[in-house]
Amino acid sequence: MNEVKTVVLKKDFYEKHKEHKEILSDKDGRPYLTLVIECKDKMFAIPFRTNLKHKFAFYFYTSQRKDEEQKGLPGIDYTKAVVIQESDIERNSAVDKKEWLELKRNINTIIREFQEYVQAFKHSLENGDFGVRPVFKYSALQYFIPEIKDF
């Protein structure tokens, strides 16, 4: 089974990418909690989100963070994943217990779905429809194309 690791990234990471508007930043000093996964010799940080409404995500159906007024669900957002190095990690961080259990139970599914998303992103670049499809046009992976070219 793959290791499940949830972390907060360093402020330096966000500072280095401050011009990259699709990377979820720690505005107002609030760090984004991320799930770190390693696949194909790359390390990715996939952010937790509260109100997801698209299919390129893993949803937490048992989360305590679900609000009846929200239209979406809490989950991790593949479209806002970033490539990181170990040195970009500030610290480990805890998550909602029910979400943690869902993560652990579904980590292999999450990795598979994320790999499929990265492949679809790369395919969109190769086909030239990258700028037309919002799910790719607004992806944080657009800033890491050299890092994922051999993915």
Total beta strands: 7
Order of helices and strands: EHEEEEEEHHH
Largest sheet properties: 7 strands, antiparallel
Q: What is the name of the CATH class?
A: Alpha Beta
Looking at the overall shape, the CATH architecture is Roll
**Integer tally of domains:** 1
Low-confidence stretches: none
Indicate the percent of residues in helices.
25-40%
Q: What is the mean pLDDT?
A: 88
Radius of gyration: 15 Å
How would the global form be characterised?
globular
| CA-CA gap between termini | 21 Å
Q: What is shown here, in short?
A:
The chain has helices spanning 11-16, 97-127, 134-137, 145-148; strands at 5-9, 33-39, 42-52, 57-59, 73-77, 82-84, 89-92.
Structure in words:
There is one protein chain. The protein is α+β, with helices and mostly antiparallel strands. The chain has one domain: Roll (Thiol Ester Dehydrase, Chain A). 30% of the residues lie in helices and 25% in strands. It has 4 helices and 7 strands; from the N terminus they run E-H-E-E-E-E-E-E-H-H-H. Strands 1, 2, 3, 4, 5, 6 and 7 form a 7-stranded antiparallel beta sheet that branches. Strand 2 and strand 3 form a beta hairpin. It is globular, with a radius of gyration of 15 Å. It starts with a strand and ends with a helix. The mean pLDDT is 88.
